[in-house]
């Protein structure tokens, strides 16, 4: 008579996500620490695809055991799925890209495909005890949207200022063009003032958030604008466990490449959150 299958300690669904679709890999870990990987499937990155993912994952389960979903925080494409799973009361871990990269380096995996990345995330979730993702509060989501809009307007304003200065000092500049550039610059400045007013109103309505920002801004070298970006992009530091992880998430960690006698100068990785790095 065949032996009964060992009861799993937990199930994990590793998810490699892109703009339009995502690949899911289902796996389990048994009491013997044996890892077993099951089927993989591709779903649309839409609400219908999210519902299909849950139905598919439920069919893969045998004995009762906790189910965890593991996804990498790449861009914004993971957000809709993460919020959906949180709303459905599913256990979810959202991992920073550098954490996944370091785990991948510890394995023998050399190739990189969507299917292999989903399996890697599944394996990471099976082997490690990962923190549960805490969705940002509506106030933090609003803060992040306003902070990103402000950064974008500041970049546009700086480029337009340089463009206007250069055009004004060229030979016989066209007066109508100068007027349009000036009007465009006035519009950006008006939008910046509107964003700052919305930020002030948000902080008036959220005194605890305002207190945390003021506390961070009290650190020498950190102004109010920088504090807003740091808190917004780290989900109130929920994604960050220590200062090294913060530097890595911002892409400010130092990397060095050396092979034999050839050595390159150390530089920052620039692989993290661009909004945080530009704060």
UniProtKB/TrEMBL annotation:
Record-level Gene Ontology MF annotations: DNA binding; transposase activity
Parts forming coiled coils: none
Transposase IS116/IS110/IS902 C-terminal domain sequence ranges: 215-279
Superkingdom of the organism of origin: Bacteria
Residues of the Transposase IS110-like N-terminal domain: 13-166
InterPro entries in UniProt: Transp_IS110-like_N, Transpos_IS110, Transposase_20
GO BP terms in the entry: DNA transposition
PANTHER family noted in UniProt: TRANSPOSASE, TRANSPOSASE FOR INSERTION SEQUENCE ELEMENT IS1111A
Protein name stated in the entry: IS110 family transposase
């Amino acid at each position: 008579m065949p032996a009964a299958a060992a009861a799993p300690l937990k199930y994990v669904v590793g998810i490699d996500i892109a703009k339009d679709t995502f690949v899911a890999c289902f796996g389990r870990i048994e009491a013997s620490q044996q890892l077993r990987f099951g089927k993989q499937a591709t779903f649309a990155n839409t609400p219908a695809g999210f519902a299909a993912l849950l139905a598919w994952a439920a069919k893969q389960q045998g004995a009762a055991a906790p189910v965890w979903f593991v996804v990498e925080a790449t861009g914004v494409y993971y957000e809709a799925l993460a919020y959906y799973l949180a709303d459905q009361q599913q256990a979810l871990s959202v991992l920073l890209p550098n954490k996944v990269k370091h785990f991948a380096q510890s394995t023998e995996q050399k190739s990189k495909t969507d299917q292999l990345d989903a399996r890697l995330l599944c394996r990471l979730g099976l082997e490690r005890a990962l923190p549960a993702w805490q969705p940002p509060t509506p106030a933090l989501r609003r803060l992040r949207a306003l902070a990103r809009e402000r950064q974008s307007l500041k970049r546009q304003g700086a480029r337009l200022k340089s463009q206007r200065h250069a055009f004004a000092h060229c030979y016989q500049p066209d007066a109508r063009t100068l007027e349009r550039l000036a009007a465009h610059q006035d519009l950006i400045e008006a939008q910046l003032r509107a964003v700052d007013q919305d930020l002030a109103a948000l902080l008036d309505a959220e005194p605890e958030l305002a207190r945390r920002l003021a506390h961070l801004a009290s650190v020498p070298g950190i102004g109010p604008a920088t504090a807003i970006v740091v808190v917004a992009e780290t989900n109130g530091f929920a994604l960050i466990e220590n200062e090294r992880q913060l530097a890595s998430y911002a892409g400010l960690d130092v990397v060095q490449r050396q092979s034999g006698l050839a050595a390159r100068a150390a530089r920052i990785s620039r692989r993290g959150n661009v909004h945080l790095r530009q704060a």
